[in-house]
């Protein structure tokens, strides 16, 4: 039996918190967590250091609430889905009737990489729907931009308010619609300079070799290896499923390597491409899913010039 | 041409693809001359009469003298690979092993040969058998003082057919991204070099099967220090191959990305050991 606002609900009960003060955040989160503990449900906090400390101090000692270590789970959206699904599956295997989680993205995730986190927030309505999960995603309205808050509203079916009420959000949009809408791709400032390498219709081997030429030792070797994996998969997908010509451009900056692969095709038809492994065997799905976990940012864009996938190794954060 | 041919393993089993027979002849002359200088017995194995073969080695210093002394031999293809019988890899390896031991007994330091084998690999079925042979003889060459250039005519066979054979050699000038070859028993069951990606995953599966690898203590250890790239498909193929043998695949590589792929995909029956 599920308890609280999600009682009687099947699958994922996904809420947003739009808070503007510590008091507001605690007024929503504390009853949520303590209600879960009281009902014998796992109650989990996936907050960054500051807000985790805030909640920990406000809870009674030995509250029974679980705090996930650090903010590690929110490094890459596809990895977050993977680790949360593993966590949820283990709770269900242990007999949990409902799992309660509050989470927040690191502030850096609300900037130039927000696009893939917005896709995450939408996709998890589907990706966690096979679990009895009630979760709240907290957004600080003093920090998040208008665009971020609009995306949060469109990807969360409900909002949890400090007075204990839970209201539907009118602009909520089903993931299959939301994820197929065209999104602009923010230009990484390094893309304003001439690429270090430009190739037309390279083989995957040529594309891999080109990444190594852009490596000036500015990134750890493992990060370069992972970028090579992602580029190889992306170029393979473009050759197999895209439409020629395929163009690959590489920029090498002091703290990152950026690779854009463009082809004249439509890009993947699967709305969850990259975020979930291709369950329906959709073409190229596994390679894209691997790419999403091998880079610090992946951006996708469909436009008159076809489909572009941009991969960033190193620091993907630039001023927006 | 793969970039690491020059730094490849030293035991000397080379696949040489050519378009112009003259390039093969000059490569053969240099290769066999080095063998003679090192006190090895050298053979030139190719179709044609003895005189025709001698003419092809025209530039080899002291050829006549070496032929008289028995340090050099010209072997018409029919004499060593019998075209009238089905080619049997194990029989052929035994023949070369006997020739190597005979050369050693006669006071040479080993056996070195250039073999033009295009005639023997014209059909897919022939290539399947001959690729198995290439790995068997590669194992022999790895442990005994025999070395060889296996030459294939690109005009006649085409690149994909040559790739089937070239990938079974530690060294090649052919356009093939990966190579599967012998290593010492302490290093593993087999060595992998180059790059494995979607362009060659079928060829990789065929090469694994043709090499007929022998696991030890429940593990199929692959020495992959010179493997520059492996994608998830080829990791899964290696895993599947080990599964069919009822063992765990162990990939020893300096590339940490392979270990992360195995973890990401939750692959069982394969382990990546990152050696740096």
TrEMBL record, chain A:
Signal peptide (UniProt feature, chain positions): none
Keyword Transferase tagged: yes
Entry-linked Pfam families: HATPase_c_2, MEDS
Keywords from the named record: Kinase, Serine/threonine-protein kinase, Transferase
Stretches assigned to coiled coil: none
InterPro entries: Anti-sigma-factor_SerPK, HATPase_C_sf, HATPase_dom, MEDS_domain, RsbA-like_anti_sig
UniProt GO MF annotations: protein serine/threonine kinase activity
Residues covered by the Histidine kinase/HSP90-like ATPase domain: 207-312
Domain MEDS: 14-157
Entry-linked SUPFAM superfamilies: ATPase domain of HSP90 chaperone/DNA topoisomerase II/histidine kinase
Protein name: Transcriptional regulator
Biological source species: Micromonospora globispora
TrEMBL record, chain B:
Domain MEDS: 13-170
Database matches in InterPro entries: MEDS_domain
Origin superkingdom: Bacteria
Name of the protein this chain belongs to: MEDS domain-containing protein
Organism whose genome encodes this protein: Micromonospora globispora
């Amino acid at each position: 039996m599920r308890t609280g606002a999600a009682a009687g609900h099947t699958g994922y009960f996904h809420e947003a918190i739009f808070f503007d003060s510590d008091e507001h955040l605690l007024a929503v989160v504390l009853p949520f967590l303590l209600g879960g503990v009281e009902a014998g449900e796992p109650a989990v906090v996936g907050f960054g250091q500051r807000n985790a400390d805030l909640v920990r101090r406000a809870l009674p000692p030995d509250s029974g609430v679980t705090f996930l270590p650090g903010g590690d789970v929110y490094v890459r959206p596809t990895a977050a889905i993977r680790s949360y699904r593993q966590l949820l599956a283990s709770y269900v295997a242990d007999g949990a009737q409902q799992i309660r989680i509050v989470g927040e993205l690191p502030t850096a995730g609300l900037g130039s990489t927000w696009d893939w986190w917005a896709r995450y927030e939408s996709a998890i309505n589907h990706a966690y729907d096979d679990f009895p999960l009630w979760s709240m995603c907290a957004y600080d309205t003093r920090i998040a931009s208008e665009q971020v808050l609009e995306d949060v509203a469109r990807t969360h079916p409900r909002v949890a308010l400090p007075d204990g009420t839970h209201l539907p959000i009118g602009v909520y949009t089903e993931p299959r619609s939301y994820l197929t809408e065209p999104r602009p791709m923010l230009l990484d400032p390094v893309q304003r300079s001439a690429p270090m390498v430009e190739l037309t219709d390279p083989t995957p081997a040529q594309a891999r070799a080109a990444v190594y030429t852009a490596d000036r030792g500015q990134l750890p070797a493992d990060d370069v290896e992972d970028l090579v994996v992602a580029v190889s998969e992306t170029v393979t997908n473009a050759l197999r499923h895209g439409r020629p010509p395929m163009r690959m451009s590489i920029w090498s900056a002091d703290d990152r390597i950026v690779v854009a692969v463009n082809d004249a095709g439509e890009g993947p038809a699967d709305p969850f491409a990259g975020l979930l492994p291709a369950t329906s065997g959709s073409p190229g799905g596994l390679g894209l899913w691997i790419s999403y976990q091998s880079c610090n940012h992946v951006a996708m864009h469909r436009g008159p010039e076809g489909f572009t996938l941009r991969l960033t190794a190193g620091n993907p954060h630039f001023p927006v | 041409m793969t970039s690491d041919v020059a730094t490849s393993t030293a035991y000397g089993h080379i696949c040489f693809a050519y378009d112009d027979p003259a390039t093969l002849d000059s490569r053969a002359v240099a290769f066999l001359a080095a063998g003679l200088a090192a006190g090895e017995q050298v053979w030139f194995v190719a179709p044609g009469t003895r005189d025709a073969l001698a003419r092809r080695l025209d530039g080899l210093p002291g050829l006549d003298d070496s032929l008289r002394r028995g340090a050099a031999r010209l072997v018409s293809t029919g004499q060593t690979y019998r075209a009238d019988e089905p080619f049997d890899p194990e029989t052929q390896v035994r023949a070369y092993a006997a020739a190597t031991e005979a050369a050693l007994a006669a006071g040479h330091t080993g056996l070195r040969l250039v073999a033009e084998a295009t005639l023997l690999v014209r059909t897919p079925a022939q290539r399947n058998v001959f690729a198995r042979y290439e790995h068997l003889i590669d194992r022999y060459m790895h442990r005994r003082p025999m070395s060889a250039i296996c030459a294939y005519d690109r005009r006649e066979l085409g690149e994909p057919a040559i790739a089937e054979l070239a990938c079974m050699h530690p060294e090649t000038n052919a356009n093939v991204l990966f190579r599967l070859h012998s290593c010492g028993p302490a290093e593993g069951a087999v060595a992998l070099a180059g790059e494995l990606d979607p362009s060659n995953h079928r060829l990789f599966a065929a090469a694994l099967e043709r090499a007929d690898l022998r696991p030890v203590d429940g593990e199929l250890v692959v020495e992959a220090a010179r493997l520059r790239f492996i994608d998830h498909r080829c990791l899964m193929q290696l895993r599947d191959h080990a599964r069919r043998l009822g063992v765990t695949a162990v990939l020893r590589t300096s590339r940490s990305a392979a270990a992360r792929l195995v973890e990401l995909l939750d692959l069982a029956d394969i382990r990546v050991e990152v050696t740096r």
